[in-house]
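[audit] Reproducing an earlier prediction to check determinism. Same input, same settings, fresh worker. If the tokens differ from the archived copy the diff job will pick it up downstream; this log only records the rerun itself.
[audit] input (220 residues):
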Amino acid sequence: MKSFKPPKLEKKRAISDDLKDIRRESILNAVDFLLTKHSMQEISMENVAETIKLAKGTLYLYFKTKEELFLSLLERAYLSWFEEIEIWVSAQEKVDIANFAEFIAESFSKKSTLLLLAPYSESILEKNILLERIIEYKRTMNLRLIALSLKISEKMPSVDVEKITLSFMFVHAAIVGLYFKAFPSKIMLEALKQPDLSKLKLDFKPSLQIMLEGIFLKLF
């Protein structure tokens, strides 16, 4: 496996909270980079430690398992996306179902980390993780979603805040279901090249937008 060479980290122990945060972000940045070259399944904790020139034992001090490491990367990616949504919402005079669905589909389809990890959150990433970490993750996401929903409700005053928050649960479900249809296995891609099967291949962004408009129409 090819590896990149990030700036060397200081050799001294990361004993302060600031240094721990810096090292933790460096680890996540390294995994994010590896994910552009290899699938999640191909990346091991050994690969990560080797890439960032960190002792494997030290890596486990920050992330107990591979699943926790990738879940933390997904968490960071989601929080960044929520911030982007909030910025977009703040810039709109009003938000309606059509332009909201279009923006969500457009912005998510450009987030490679989210696109690659979100479909595996429940099936893989939320397993083999300590209960305390799962609770922390879920609470962080829930609180951030509530804050984002409140911001969206300012531009959609007729829609209940709880319904806006719930809509993001459906957004996630739509993404998970659509991902495996839009990005099938290599052998399935070959099969879909047959003229009579070509229409079974879905394009992710326009398909997601259609699904989201239906979800928002029903909820809002």
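[audit] rerun output stored. Observation attached for the diff report: The radius of gyration is 20 Å.
[audit] end
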